Amino acid sequence: MIKRIAVLTALIPAMLSTTVGVASAHSAPHATTAVVTLTYDAGDAGQWAGPIEQAVSNWNDAVHNVRLVPTSTPGSADYVYEATSGWPQTTLGPIFPGGNGDVELGQQAVDEGYDMTRIAAHETGHILGLLDHYSGPCSELMSGHGPGTSCTNAKPDAAEAAQVDKNYASGTPALRPHRHQVVIDVWSDRRLTEPR
Q1: Residue 81: enclosing H or E segment and its boundaries?
Q2: Is 119 exposed, middle or buried (0-12, 13-18, 19+ CB in 10 A)?
Q3: Does the keyword tRNA processing apply (predicted)?
Q4: Cβ contacts of residue 66 below 8 Å, gap of 6+?
Q5: Which of 22, 95, 159, 181 is the most buried (most CB within 10 A)?
Q6: Rounded to an integer, what distance in angstroms lies between the CA atom of residue 196 and that of residue 156?
Q7: Measuring CA to CA, how many Å separate 192 from each of 27, 47, 71, 189?
Q8: C-alpha–C-alpha distance, residues 30 and 80, integer Å
Q9: Whole-angstrom distance, CA of residue 131 vs CA of residue 147
């Protein structure tokens, strides 16, 4: 009987520490980043409404730290889409809540034969802080016009999505960047040459 009591005395603390360890492992909070929500206004986008909706959906499916949603109050969006007659151009982000980004979706790129959804998704990539990489393959959204008019891929690749997640990993910064650099994308197969 004394041996059984000694064994139980040794097992009970061991069982309790295991149970406590398991309970604390399950109740430990997961380290998560707050998702940054950016609002956009596509009220002046005209024929681009469908391509914008698809482009936004592609980005929302690919990234985790930022969410793009249409504004419920016109004039209060973090960035706006608008249809223009020129070349696409965009404020280079990353844009954060309270920002004022601009995406001009230019008809000239469409006239050259480029896919509207790819253009909208590419320009949204600039809002999210991505730079152009024209020499990249069609699978890279930020290769833009580089692969030519036959490229219709409108989804970011894994590396592009990872960079956007990194851009928004710390949530909304206390100090927002005040730069207003604009990226002008000339979606053209024409090669510019320097005068001699």
Answers
A1: strand 79-84
A2: buried
A3: no
A4: 35, 36, 37, 38, 94, 128, 164, 165, 167, 168
A5: 95
A6: 39
A7: 61, 29, 39, 9
A8: 34
A9: 16
Distances (CA, A) of 142 to 26, 28, 129, 175: 41, 39, 11, 27
Please report, for the chain, the start and end positions of each structural domain, with discontinuous segments joined by +.
Answer: 37-184
Q: Which helix (H) or strand (E) holds 158?
A: helix 158-167
- Enter the tokens of residue 160: 């592009």
Please give the Cα distance from 123 to 130 (Å, whole number).
Answer: 9
pTM of structure: 0.76
- Of the listed 123, 140, 160, 194, which one is catalytic? 123
What does the DSSP 8-state code read for residue 183?
A: E
pLDDT digits (tens, 9 = 90+) for 39-95: 999 999 999 999 999 999 999 999 999 999 999 998 899 999 999 999 999 999 999
Tell me what pLDDT residue 99 has.
87
- 165 and 177 in contact (C-beta within 8 Å)? no
* Active site annotation includes 160: no
Tell the CATH topology of 37-184. Collagenase (Catalytic Domain) (3.40.390)
Alpha carbon separation from 154 to 52, 77, 121, 127, 143 (Å, rounded): 11, 23, 6, 15, 11
What DSSP string describes 84-147? ESS--EEE-S---TT--EEEEEEHHHHHTT--HHHHHHHHHHHHTTPPP-TTS-TTSGGGTTTT
